[in-house]
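Sanity check

After download, print the first record. It should look like this:
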Amino acid sequence: MDIFSFVTLFGGLAFFLYGMRLLSESLKKTAGGKLEKLLNKATDNKFKGLAVGAIITIAIQSSSAMTVMLVGFVNSGIMDLPQTVGVIFGSDIGTTLTAWILSLAGIDSGDNVFLKLLKPSVFSLIFALIGIALIMICKKQRRKDIGTMLIGFAILMQGMTMMSASMEPLKEMDSFVSIMTAFKNPLLGVVSGAVVTGIIQSSAAAIGILQSISMTGKLTYGMAIPLVMGANIGTCMTAILSSIGVNRDAKRVTVIHVAIKLIGTVIWLIVFYAVDAFFNFSFMDNPVGIVGVAAIHSIFNIANTVLLFPFSKLLVKIAHLIVKETAEEQEFKLDERLMLTPSIAVGECRNMMVKMVTKAKDGLDKSMDMLSNGYNTTDFDFIKKNEERVDGYEDLLGSYLMKLTTTQHLSVEDKNRSSRILQAIGEVERIADHANYLSDSAEEIETKHLEFSDAAREELNKVIPAVREIYTMALECYLSNNAVNADNIGPLRIVISEMCDKFKANHVERLAEGICTTEQGFVFNDILYSCVRIAEHSLNIAAIAYRFKHAGSTNPDTYMHDFKQRKDKDEKKYQEYVKKFNA
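Expected structure tokens:
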């Protein structure tokens, strides 16, 4: 075996991997998102998940791509962790089809034309011809994608043919025989199979290499079995890499995938070799053919599914034990069992709402500090993280309370309490959004080295304290049900709105006189816009508090409109705010 044999081997492997990738990506494009929709809809029980996982993996020809898809779905919240278990098992079974397709290369066709057409080295060339014709002639993208899929398959099979050809000289090498004999050690075989597959990140490619080696006649069943088991462990490497930077439930998908492979390999190794010790399987030293490797691959994955599928819930628990919840994750939990006692459930939602309001205020305080005192990375990062947490509170409270109110019988008081929370969470979340926008403005001022004019800076120093006061008063008003403070928020909102309109007009004049630049103007207007919106959302929160404080005396259909109307009694307070903030 010379250097050209190694070039052919690794060149064939490159063709195989690229063909597999091209085939997988074009199949997903051809499906037009239907595979993802099918996966999401058909996993309401684990048996459907098993079938869907197998079907989609057969379609896209990659269990690694399937697992990466699951990690993405769980990370984005489209799927729950328990839904993925059945799909993973199905994916393990579906991926074995590739080995059976590759095994067609071992057909002894003789002079039979039909059998010759079944050989991948022949029909893959026909596929390539059809594929390139579709790409060059057709105008519709879907047909071009089908052409790409056929070419991907042809490249894959050509890679397999090249790998098989590179192995041909090994038949006569004594050193190769001695190396292969070492793989009779089951542990060495498993580790070697896992390492090779982990490096190339494709169990299909690893099994393809084994099938190529099997064509030399030097690979026995005793060597192939642990190597195949190891290859199944190594394929988890892609899932492990895809779990970097995702949420904890998405990481648990990877843990489940690895656990299935590891537990299954350990158990079946012990069982298989224990039985072999008693009965001394005669086939262990027999050469394994290309079909035999495919059979071992299928039998292992099917046996693994039969063994572990009934313990799907246990696998989820194992994933939770390995990837533990942080204190922050535990914070985002509402026990559905509390719904049996609605008053307690609403009380827990109230406690979480307090946390949400506090987080929103913390973010706003820090964004205002940055606008007044200058940008700093610590506060900026805090605001970004804080806004995500407020979003999390909104999603959790909204879904929990909707389920509570639609599935349980609530008292009038509990209905009012839950309604009060549901109406306010959107307003609080929007306030946190504007804290985020203000932090972006502070960062832009810093990174672009923008310097506001003295007049613009003076105007910001007037409006920022007013905005601080209105949202502080509104949030405290909501938490304490202080209707008196609620009445004071309306006049302050008007003052802030008038200040911002006036300051925008002043800034236009400064732009015309060349005192300020257009770039400064965009940032200045963004800040004023957020100030107005914060004031509006603060007024809405106060109106919600006002309504429930005066539940019997307000019209639930018009209270928001009535509350926002400027009243004669507000004039005194309005003048006080004008004087206080020098508006």
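If your output differs, re-run the checksum step. Summary of this record's structure: The chain has three domains: 3-322, 326-448, 450-583.
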